[in-house]
């Protein structure tokens, strides 16, 4: 199986998992063909969170969608993989199609441009959740009364997946989490670094 096919299948599983946890029972179209674009026209916007965090937003354009989803919509913060060359690549922007796809299924998606440090990533994801909750209460915001603060989720890939799991373990607001190949690098007692798959045992309240 090619890497592209494998990741495509994981993204499809993400649509099903988040839809079932956040939106409600998964209809037959979503379950059998999650790769198809959903019923919601979407809007894209780039915002700055906390004064410095570039974040890409994707959300349904109106408060109702053709086939059923309606505001307030569940919200997902998506954490991208480690970017070793941030001066040349924008890993958050490279995941824009993920944001568009999830938004078309009736979700508000935020993809922040994250730093490399793991704990900073976790903290930043929490800041984005705070931002979405605050925007829901601002009459001038395009997200006014569109965010369901009782249906919040994190998702991510690789180091982003580990960060998504970590925040879900610490933040009681999060109702669902999807981690695609979650992995992070940590040092042992001798200072040697190695890749470690995230242990679900470390997040027993998820």
Account of the protein in words:
It is a single chain. The chain is an alpha/beta fold. It is 33% helix and 27% strand. The protein contains six helices and eight strands; from the N terminus they run H-H-E-E-E-H-H-E-H-E-H-E-E-E. The protein has helices at residues 3-23, 28-32, 91-94, 96-104, 118-135, 159-170; strands at 42-49, 53-60, 73-79, 108-112, 147-157, 174-180, 183-187, 193-197. The strands form two sheets. The protein has a six-stranded mixed β-sheet with strand order 1-2-4-3-5-6. It has a two-stranded antiparallel ribbon with strand order 7-8. Helix 6 (159-170) links the parallel strand 5 and strand 6 (174-180). Helix 5 crosses helix 6 (159-170). The model is unreliable at 1-7, 25-32 and 193-206 (pLDDT under 50).
SSE class: alpha/beta
Read across the widest sheet, the strand sequence of neighbours is 1-2-4-3-5-6
| Span of the ends, CA to CA | 30 Å
Element-level helix/strand string: HHEEEHHEHEHEEE
- Radius of gyration, taken over Cα atoms and rounded to an integer in Å: 16 Å
Strand element count: 8
The shape, in one word, is: globular
Percent of residues in helices = 25-40%
Q: Biggest β-sheet: count, sense, barrel?
A: 6 strands, mixed
Strand content: 25-35%
Give the overall average pLDDT: 80
Number of helices: 6
Return residue spans where pLDDT drops below 50 for at least 5 consecutive residues: 1-7, 25-32, 193-206
């Amino acid at each position: 199986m090619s890497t592209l096919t494998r990741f495509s299948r994981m993204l499809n599983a993400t649509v099903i998992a988040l839809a079932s946890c956040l939106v409600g029972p998964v209809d037959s179209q979503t379950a059998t063909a999650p790769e198809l674009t959903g019923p919601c026209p979407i809007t894209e916007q780039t915002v700055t969170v906390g004064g410095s965090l570039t974040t890409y937003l994707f959300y349904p354009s109106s408060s109702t969608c053709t086939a059923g989803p309606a505001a307030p919509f569940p919200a997902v913060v998506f954490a991208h993989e480690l970017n070793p060359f941030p001066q040349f690549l924008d890993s958050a922007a490279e995941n824009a199609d993920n944001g568009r796809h999830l938004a078309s299924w009736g979700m508000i998606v935020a993809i922040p441009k994250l730093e490399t440090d793991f704990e900073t990533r976790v903290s930043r994801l929490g800041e984005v959740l705070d931002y979405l909750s605050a925007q829901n209460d601002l009459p001038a915001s395009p997200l006014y009364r569109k965010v369901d603060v009782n249906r919040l989720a994190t998702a991510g890939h690789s180091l982003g997946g580990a960060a998504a799991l970590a925040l879900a373990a610490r933040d009681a607001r999060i109702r669902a989490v999807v981690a695609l190949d979650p992995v992070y690098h940590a040092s042992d007692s001798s200072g040697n670094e190695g890749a470690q798959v995230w242990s679900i045992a470390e997040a027993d309240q998820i």
